[in-house]
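Need tokens for this chain, all 575 residues.
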Amino acid sequence: MASAIISLSTEGFLCSICLDVFTEPVSTPCGHNYCKACIKHYWSTSNVSQCPLCKEDFHGAPELRVNTEFRDMLEVFKRMAAAGDDNGSPARPGEVPCDLCHGTKRKALKSCLVCLASYCNAHLEPHHTVQALKWHHLINPVNLEDRVCKKHNRVMEFFCRREQSCVCVVCLKDDHVMHEYVSLEVEFNERKTKLQHMKRRVSRMLSKKCTKASEIKTSMMQDQQEVKRTKAETVKVFTALESKKVKLMELLEEKQRAAERRAEALIRQLQLEIDEDNWTRIELEEFSKTEDDFRLLQDLPSISSPSNIKHHLLQLDAVRSAVAKMEETLDEQMENIIRELSLVDKEETVEEPVQAEKVFDDVLGKIQSQYAINVTLDPNTAHPSLILSEDRKQVRDGGAKRKVPDKPMRFDFYHFVLGNEGFSSGRFYYEVLVKGQKVWEVGVTRESISRKGVALSLSPENGCWTLGSYWGRCQANASPPVVLSLSKNPEKVGVFVDYEGGLVCFYNVDARFLMYSFTRCVFTEGASRPRNLSALKVHNDAQAKTRIFPLFRPSAEWREPAPLQITPVSCTREQ
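Here are the structure tokens for all 575 residues:
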């Protein structure tokens, strides 16, 4: 009966004699159906009683009885035909279509796990009216192909805990006899419970990190106000001591800048973790809202560890206390103030890198240990002026073009060279020693970067994500470029790329802090910048992916002995 309902069509309900819908359908002994009046009239005009279709002869006219079950199905078909196309809206992209609709597919209302088919409102009616179909298991419309065992063509009703896969009852007897298994409903419920716990955990961590970022921002503003007030008090009291006032101002301003740099570094790190937690929260939200329980059997996204970031407030009480006593011992107290402020600044300078190392070692150390790759230079892309070492780990500018084969992939104007291997998925990290280089650039670029002429702009819009140093000024080549406020330019730069996450980060390896990061990068060729994180995932998960390559540019000061060098990645901080 189920198979008969699935194959409903207009042709299946037409009498082969009158070519119209059956009226009082009867079956001949050979199994063919006709209208009762049609077959009787056919036999009355012939000398023999035979089937009009298969020509089987019968001894005398067989006794004909109306096929009541077929007649009931016929009545259902007539009601469905009368309903026409007005019963249900057409299925839109992403919606499950009805398997029985011809022409325009209507949106499925339910899926049957017994028939292994999805039905619109009209074609679902037999499951409510025909007694033989009422026991079938109906669920919200889903893609049933994933629920059928490809090996045995049976519905998968169990979950193997050992293999972590869905299996049918035949699989249990053949390949999973000694394995632990449960019903899909039990596994669904456990996954839903686990999903709820993960959502709560991510929400708690997200709340804590947002609170911490807000506290640091507030603290930075308070520090600015405190420094401003302290400067005002100092100017008021020490107007006559101009030289010592200037020295004190410089110390206070340097202290403020150092505190702001530390706070901004912590905020950038927290913002990265917040973005990652937001992505995880969005993915978990999509998992929790799905009506297809089968998606819960996929691997759930991992949750990052809680942040352990601490922030120190500026301590300026000693300065104000000393200023208040200045009038009593003017010259002596002034020296004490400068000496005390310098001492506090030195103590914080010693203490802060330890704290920064503790904060960022967890992130940078994890990147170094898990995503480090072996990068070598591709001589076929190197500008004719560039000289590569034999191991293809170092490059320097020779100052003049050499005679080399003019290949399509070689740069002929800009003094660039690419890495030998491209990447179109995953995460990777490499480190570059730039010590001794006055002008340099490192980063990644799309494979389609212009190699010939001057038509090249190092910007994300042109498929380039780079960081460079230009005569002592470190700059991220964004749109517009971003000049970095660094107390000291890096000597070794770490480059981390997350292809699917659309992220390119640049680390100061020796100081172990994040200098700059490009977020929501679109690596896929021809894709526009996404409006949100979900659209970014769709762009960077597309099938036709674009390869990206590491990019290097050494200093053009060819007399400098130090080359730009790709170094092995070490997870320990250099002393």
